[in-house]
Write a structure and sequence with these properties.
It contains five helices and seven strands, in the order αβααββαββββα. The protein is an alpha+beta fold. The chain has a seven-stranded antiparallel β-sheet, sandwiched between helices.
Amino acid sequence: MSEQQQDTQPTATEPEIITPQITTPVVVEQPQTLLPPPPEAPPLPPTPPKDRRVLRAALRWTAAVVVFAAVGAATAYGITRMERTDVPGLATESDGRWDYPALTRPPLPSGSPEPFAETNKAGAHYADLRALVLPAPEGATQDKRLRGSDGWLATKEFLAEYASEERAEFRQELVDNGLRHIAARGWRTEDGTHTRIYLLHFDTAAVVDEVFSTDIAPYSSPGRVVRGAGASVFDEDFPEPARIDDVQRSVYTESKPYGAEHVRQAYLAAGDVLGVIIQSRKGTAPAVPFQQTVTLQSQLLG
């Protein structure tokens, strides 16, 4: 931390204290006029005693009004603090979000900086990459194929996501850019949505930025064709407020008519990690779980 310099200012001259001169006021005596004493007021008539029953009833009504006012205020405050679905009669249907477990980032090795700290020029993720993969939501069935060996997935398993004519060239590109290893997780929810997440680890953020921007995630359409997907275009409906600082993001959706499944895909450039998220479903893959999954994975990497 740089030392803060304190500005030296000249000592202000003490203001001159002016003492006002106190003079004795001149008192002018006025002649005193004696007024006659006021006449005695007649005694007031005795106050009739109040009916104690009326008094007790008034007190009860006053207390009831105070209680109802307090309860009403507390209820109004409680409703303003509750979610819409918590208020009886105002419940709304779910918007399709999945129930994910509480997310926590894994601890960093002692003395290691965060991936986007100023001292971390390479944008390196020093935490265990396998612990940075988003966990499956509640009720989902795990995709055992993506567990890999000791949590690391073979490159050929990742390349199987893409069209067969893409794989050889894509594999060579990954080798040329120094791919170190891949952490992955996949699951299928009850509605048939199949989610796959891959985190590809490279040496530096500069390498990831090159792969992301020049080959795999151009703006108009993805640079690589996912197996079984038709033409895909940039997803203009993805909410911009869901963007996470320091994480580049490109999202795509398959154009109609869909193939055997509707495919959505996202690519994340987060320091030295390239994230790949693919969701597919027969019919239409819902947008909300896809947006939720991409955002949460971005937060874990950011």
